[in-house]
Amino acid sequence: MQHGFIKVASVSPKIKVADTDYNKEEICKCIEEAEGNGAKIIVFPELCITGYTCGDLFLQETLLESAKSALEEIVDFTDGYDALVFVGMPLEVGNNLYNVAAVINCGELLAFIPKTHIPNYAEFYEGRHFAKGNETAIPVTFLENEIPFGSHILFETDALEGLKIAAEICEDMWVPNPPNIKHALAGANVIVNLSASNENVGKDEYREMLIKSTSARLVAAYIFSSAGEGESTQDLVFSGHNMIAENGTMLAQENSFLANIVYADLDIHRLKMERRRMNSYENSGALEAENAGYLTIPFSIVREKTNLTRSFLQNPFVPVNKEKREKRCEQIFAIQSFGLVKRYEHTNCKSAVLGISGGLDSTLALLVTVRAFDILGIDRKNIYSVTMPCFGTTDRTYDNACKLAETLGTTLMEVDIKEAVSIHFKDIHQDPDNHDVTYENGQARERTQVLMDIANKTGGLVIGTGDMSELALGWATYNGDHMSMYGVNAGVPKTLVRHLVRYYADSCGNETLMKVLYDVLDTPVSPELLPPEDGKISQKTEDLVGPYELHDFFLYYMLRLGYSPSKVYRIAVTAFESVYTEEIILKWLKTFYHRFFTQQFKRSCLPDGPKVGSVAVSPRGDLRMPSDASAAIWKRELEEL
Questions:
Q1: Which residues, 6 or more positions from 204, have their beta carbon under 8 angstroms from its beta carbon?
Q2: What is the pTM of this model?
Q3: How confident is the model at residue 288 (pLDDT cuts 50, 70, 90)?
Q4: Which of 77, 184, 456, 493 would you call most buried, defined as having the most Cβ atoms within 10 angstroms of its Cβ?
Q5: Do 363 and 513 form a contact (C-beta atoms < 8 A)?
Q6: Where do the domains of the chain lie?
Q7: How much is the mean pLDDT over the chain?
Q8: Per the residue annotation, which of 30, 48, 170, 390 is the catalytic one?
């Protein structure tokens, strides 16, 4: 459970209808297997002790008593097993029969959760046998013990702070006002569903959609276990469709028509963080469990480090699927370009000025500006693509900048700033042979001055080219490339910039342009502020601040999901196992936290620019952070790794 992870299992055992002895044995085997694989929450299907398809046999005393005996043996079997187990069965209470989930932990029966919505339509005839369950927990006698009985029950453990589990049964999820809403508002962040959902054409897709959307709307994990192999096929077939979802993402599922167990690692801390950042979640009417009439029951599991099988994408900003990636790229281009369109409609400006370096960021900014001008019906010649060679400019980047500007039909301007920068160095007594930060930043600020003045001269706007990854690290010259009149790339991380440029290259239909864009993609990322070595780039950004794929990974999980430094480190080691050593990951993670905290002053005065994804660093949007906040506790956690 370290870092909030907990392994869970959704189980569909092979059963025999009405053979409780056989079913008990299969359930116990599955408990042993699932717990042996590290599962701490184990969910079985609806009525699995007897089988869902018993029909009028549910009215037989023999079956009901046999089910009780089977449950007693299952409870005894779990003594010494480190898990919370949900098993479905029929239970007689008073004069009524209920469809319930028996909740078991370490040889103890904790509660019965009754089904509250009883379907009696189409192929379902549960109303013939079962009564609607009550919400408020009441005590019922089971084998001489008083056991809580009701749907408003939560389960929590000291082994994982913040974990709260609630249960519902099959139809409960399908109704307009499902119990899971009240459960979530009472604090439950894991909902389990014991189900017997029969299979017919297209129903599996609907179930999946329903479970994903439920987990997203509730900001919760949802464990769905459905009846399968062994249920009667007299009129229906059950496929054992088991699913585990978390906040809209399907973590694991199987629908094989055979007995199966699926596992997933839930991230409880992530769910807590998501709810914490959504203040509307509380405002929607969330209640403390005790005030909502819920009974909270503690259960015991051993606190230990979960062996993760959950995978983490190396590039969380970039979809793996090609079709989704291309769709994402098109959406981002639309957001960037229409953001710029609005700015031009408001200012009534007719020209744009961009510093073109032959690098990725300025290339993307130019492509976006071209699209915006096409939408506005403004001649591309009104886009001034300004190349400003200086001490670090190489022939490769210079040539690409010129070719790009000309191929796109913009106005290419060249302003050699060597003389101006040299005069400035003379004015401030800067030795040009001293290649320090003044040497570098003096060039960057001169370029910005040139762009701003050309914009004044042409009645246009300076379009910013810096991306979100640079802003997160503070890898921008204050009042240099840090400044513009509208920053179209401000919400785009570096790893995504590369894919956007490649997408444009692949879809532009212009062979000359495609060739230039691919050479830009192959060029090392560099500010080109230091003299070249043998005509090649000598200053490579990723050698200085670290690989952008690592920093974008750190940024996503730290800022978007609120992970602690040790948790970010743990999942980075997992994600980049075959790429970087643990020492390299830790080195650059320390760099990331140091720069992120010390460079906030640059982000506090960012120009306007559109948010394109779920992570942004604008001081007017997602990131309200003091410029002088201390990083001490984050750094201390890293030092203790």
A1: 239, 241, 255
A2: 0.92
A3: low
A4: 493
A5: no
A6: 2-298, 322-639
A7: 95
A8: 170
